[in-house]
Amino acid sequence: MSRTTKVADVTVALDHWIGGERVGSASTFDDVSPVDGRVIARIARGGPGEADAAVAAARAAFPEWAAKPPAERAALLHRVADLVEQRLEQLAIVETVDNGALLRSHLRSVMPRVAHNFRFFADYLVNDLHHPNFETRGHRNHVSWDPSGVAVLITPWNAPLMLATWKVAPALAAGCSVVLKPAEWSPLTASMLADITAEAGMPAGVFNVVQGLGEEVGPALTSNPDVARISFTGSVQTARLIAASAAANLTPCSFELGGKSPFIAFADADLDAAVANAVEQYDNAGQVCLATTRLLVEESVHDEFVARFVDRTNALRQGDPRHAATDIGPQITDEHLRRIEGFVQRATVDGAKVVIGGGRNSELGGLFYRPTLITDVAPGSEILTEEVFGPVLTLQTFADEDEAVAMANGTDFGLAAVLFTGDPQRARRVSAQLVAGTVWVNCFFVRDLRAPFGGSRHSGVGREGGTWSFDFYCDVKNTCTNVDRWTR
Ligand code: NAD
User: Fold this and answer.
1) What class is the 262-441 domain?
2) Can you identify the CATH homologous superfamily of domain 4-257+455-478?
3) pLDDT tens for each residue of 82-92
């Protein structure tokens, strides 16, 4: 009998999903809700045995899935999207209780996006993927996108289902079979997705979920010679371990990692719009890889920018993420919150000034850290170079464009950048010099799935989105035929 529990009145399976069946483990781990600190589920604690079984199941299911006509694979992915839409409210509330992100966002944008991810890659497979033929001196070249095999997908906790489906949808569309390993801090919606794929009619073994702690189950997945692709979103430290583990088999890896991204506001910008977007960097309690957490503001508008920023931030409502009026929820775990506290404490010891926030929200208790703005930071200090992954922004000033670009590019990361200016020429000049996978000009967080997404330097390897995701899961092949032979 497979184990289940009720989370916010929704039944969620607690075991792995391997080969079309629920499979338990000898032990479990506690899944704790950041909303109130309660243990909400005891999840199967996978290890090498479960990892091997999941890869074997995916390997066995691969040939049939890969051989399915694209239209059939696409129809199945649309059915998955239909079911996600039907269960949107259940997925949204379970995700909120599991990872503490706002229910409002899950309902309005995140879960619709999950469905969209499946629809987008289903349509891409059928409508956009062309197999070109071209001829040179009697030789015809035919390019095909062959599914590569078993894809291992390892995902983080900050946007669990949406980030998982950025990988799951293109991998399945491409004809790969999948083993998904969700983060141990937010394992529930991946388990619900397994039920959805089964209900949609996905053949057993095409989609598998292995639960467990990263260090216990991860290495067996990433070192398995039957794995054709590894796609990982998470921290730089874990990416290094995965790269080392995958090296033995030269398994291709795609990495979406952390950031320390800049937000540049020039004096000629619409200051209100710039400030509103700067305050958005606190979304998801700052637990967003793309957050542009280093505010770089032109000297002449510094005072005005800070005054408006403080006003707007003070108007944010912190509290229970299930309430529609809440703007900022809790951090994911107490350990993570203490890490954030450490960053801010060390910065102040080094002489930095806390303009607002700077500690836990004692009125709320629990895992709430106040949205924080730090100024007077010594150049090169830790708070300017390391990812905090919490609601903590720094603010520095610059004198001119050159200085802004130098400061913006002055970290080991290169994930994103935001640029506010009223001058289109300057926008072009500056954005061309920024080292970042995405530059947003006078906007933030707009994401068209056809566009590439990812980071340079330590922010990642490869890109996701549209053709970049799809290609990663394929072995692209050119078949060159001497057609003259047929005609002689
Ligand atoms: P993490 O690296 O701690 O964990 C991510 C996943 O890796 C989890 O599923 C975990 O279980 C697994 N894992 C841990 N050790 C492993 C091992 N040895 N082998 C295989 N898998 C292992 O990251 P996190 O704390 O969950 O996520 C936060 C980080 O993710 C931040 O750095 C953030 O910037 C980054 N992130 C990046 C993006 C992006 O698209 N660039 C998006 C979201 C989050």
Assistant:
1) alpha beta
2) Aldehyde Dehydrogenase; Chain A, domain 1 (3.40.605.10)
3) 999 999 999 99
